[in-house]
């Protein structure tokens, strides 16, 4: 399969200032709480075909933020991410499929030392040259995981029934990558 139009071969670098890795999870069964990670690094290696391409992502778990200091401290602690013992989460792609603007990226997601295969539904948003002459590519991706599959089992029972934190976590990604530098001889 061919790579999306406009992506040149080489390693595209992640642009953290124009990207976001976030998630949402049901809270108390009645609403969703959202969080994101501020320290993310990724490399998109584009080969001559989709099969020859790869993406590797590293997320520093201590960079989690939800806008609530108390919740952030709890999520960073041993009940959830345990950032002291597990300072990073990773995603390494294993296969890619699709064409045009719609793709699936399958890969190994590791959280708390547990690795599971996940599928990211991915939209390729195109390639553009910004006003400073920098070539950029954009993607939007999402998936849902069971937090229990990754050892994130802490919860509290609610008086009316149910639990405080839902099991289904929806991960959403908006990412920009910068084209490899062109070397002239």
Structural features, described:
- The chain has 185 residues and is mainly beta.
- It has a domain at 10-19 and 37-150: Lipocalin (Beta Barrel), CATH 2.40.128.
- Helices cover 4% and strands 54% of the residues.
- It contains one helix and eleven strands.
- Strands 1-4-5-7-8-9-10-11 form an eight-stranded antiparallel β-barrel.
- A hairpin with a 3-residue loop joins β2 and β3.
- The model has no long low-confidence stretch (mean pLDDT 90).
Secondary-structure-derived class: mainly beta
Distance between the termini: 31 Å
Give the H and E element order.
EEEEEEHEEEEE
State the helicity in percent bands.
under 10%
The CATH architecture classification of one domain is Beta Barrel
Organism: Arthrobacter cheniae
InterPro entries: Lipid/polyisoprenoid-bd_YceI, TTHA0802/YceI-like_sf
Family: Belongs to the UPF0312 family.
Protein name: Polyisoprenoid-binding protein
Write a concise keyword list for the protein shown above.
185 residues, mainly beta, Lipocalin, 8-stranded antiparallel beta barrel, 1 helix, 11 strands, 4% helix, 54% strand, elongated, Polyisoprenoid-binding protein, TTHA0802/YceI-like_sf, Lipid/polyisoprenoid-bd_YceI
Short description:
This protein has 185 residues and is mainly β. Helices cover 4% and strands 54% of the residues.
